[in-house]
Amino acid sequence: MSVYNFKKVEAKWQKKWEETNQYKTDTRDTSKPLYYTLEMFPYPSGKIHMGHVRNYSIGDVVARFKKMEGYNVLHPMGWDSFGLPAENAAIKHGIHPAKWTYENIDDMKNQLKLLGLSYDWERELATSNPDYYKFTQEIFLKFLEAGLAYKKKSYVNWCPSCETVLANEQVVGGKCERCDSTVIKKELEQWYFKTTEFAEELLQGLDELDGWPEKVKTMQRNWIGKSHGAELVFDIEGTDEKMVVYTTRPDTTYGVTFMCLAPESPLVKELVAGTEYEEAVNEFVQKMHTKTEIERTAADAEKEGMFIGKYVINPVNGKRVPLWIANYILMDYGTGAIMAVPAHDDRDKAFAEKYNLDIIPVIDEDGKLINSEEFNGLDYKTAQDKITEKLAKEGRGKKTVNYRLRDWLLSRQRYWGVPIPVVYCEDCGIVPVNKEDLPILLPTDVEFTGKGESPLTTSKTFVNTVCPKCGKPATRDVDTMDTFVDSSWYFLRYIDNKNEEKMFDSELVNKWMPVDQYIGGVEHAIMHLLYARFFTKALKKVGMVDFDEPFKNLLTQGMVLMDGSKMSKSKGNTVSPLEIIDEYGADTARLFVLFAAPPERDLDWSEQGVEGCFRFLNRVYRLVDELKDIVKSNAEIKVSTKEDKAMRYTIHSTLKKVTGELSEKFGFNTAIAALMELINEMYKYKELDTRNDGIIKEGIETIITILAPFTPHMGEELWEMIGKEGSIFDISWPEYDEKALVKDEIEIVVQVNGKVRAKLSIDADMSKEDMEKAALENEKVKASIDGKNVVKVVAVPKKLVNIVVK
Length: 806
Fold this sequence. Notes:
38% of the residues lie in helices and 19% in strands. The chain is α+β, with helices and mostly antiparallel strands.
């Protein structure tokens, strides 16, 4: 019995692919239709996990299938290589982040190569390489020039442990997503990208993304958070200041009994300066900075606040209402101020009851206005427009749209990231670095203490420079960019990654983009995917690209679970891909993750499932080895028996099934199941004395071809075993024969009172009368109706016969 030596076979073909540059793509070759498939690139942590195996195996099947379909396929891989873990390693182990990162890249690249993935490694990139981040800096300068990058002072999320700023998306449940420390608020001057300029485009664009999962689009819609309402203007008594408030319920304006500002509002300091309230207010504000947004805004959180000594005039009725600050008001929503209507808002009511403030109802149970002067009796929806119109005429209000989406805070107090390419000059202010001076390189003379400001401040060679404008002494920005900036355009660089003059050839990129199929985890639904969409729209605005969206189709694959829980080191339930590859081979690992569950669902790890896939591949190997001489022969297809016809039907119906699953959806598991059935039938057919060698040949060639994208090493080995030259991935995907799918005989079911009692093989064109007769003569049916009165017999051609008895 022949044995499949997977270690020898896999090493052989990996070496051959590398020597022949099998997967090199010429992106300037447009003689074939173009297809760009891409998996989200990994952070180089040092070791691949089963999630990587699943993600990259899915993408590899897509890439190989599309190549065999005749496309010029682009399938690259690189590294999201800036980030905090490298800096933490520098602090903990005294190893430079660059050394730690590039050693990990080498390790992970070798591990990925063991999986036999069809990457064009000549397109490899790492976001921490100067030849990449040079262009990240150039993009920043383009955005700055276009007004899409700006600097302002504001309260930001601050992780005391990492000692860095976090974007809202990096705060999970009030904790730092990386170290799980409680996040506080801190006032800093920071750089922002103007994502809000594209809020409506980002929202509307989701309607065009038919190839995206609905759950991802819903998550993005919720994050963008569009709402319709009004901006109302309230005068602050005794000052020239005004409060502008956004509300979705202008119909409740007559019910305002107090006003609230966020403690962080710049207006608060201004209004209490020099008053008896100043000290107490400052203490309250400091207290709020130790609280997370979750703690402050949770429905069950105690409402806290204080009066700041000022009154505000309600624009609809001229009434004086007290001005407070409150813990549940945040600067991030609207204008950082609210009109409080305790009769119709639970949080406002809890606050009013605690501090004995008035509660005035203005909407009755029928949705009609009360206590609202000339608007009494109107339904609340009509009143919204009428009250807004009244205030608009008086210059105290207007209809408006609000978005939950905030501008992207991108400054980070870290070393291992892209230096921000601006300098600060006493005479010229903020001055962009000249394009020809890029990249602004990370210095090597830095100290990693893990405390205090950015490590870049410890490098005098970096900090001190000259102004590009006037030539006088200046200082560099010592923050680096959020690493999500790096991953927001990497898919464009792959297309033209050797270009040293510009970030990419726009004409070339416009031909290849958007990415035809993007694959990655749903955990990136908001941050990475939203930022990549923003970048694409911003690059279009500055004239770099001519398309609106980066990813045409998106697959978010499920997690790999162990006993129903996500694999994690802390739970001690991880499985090493390298151990699986060593024991069973890469093709077995790939086959299991593709077969065990549909790709969009979570997959439960099963050692028995892996062993089953290993046995199946050995079974295929033995079958081909046994029949290889027949396949090498000149045997011709002759259909002489019903077994011949049935075998050809199975071959071509399987081919049709697999083709459909790979081209129209990601039915890898059902495609593999169909292939397993084909193998079973081929084992039976080869034992027949009447078998036809031409059909054997056709069957084996079909099996090898459709198995190859799933298990590429075995595919190549079996292709060579049957005497074929060249790579199997250079051949065209076979077409199924429609004629072979026409059955002379079909199987129907026979029901008695709706319950299946027998199955019959009949002529496909049998008449209703003959179907009824055949059913009634069947021994199992006879037994079921024995002693009963047949009331009616209904025959449905090619499907069933139903016998009704009493």
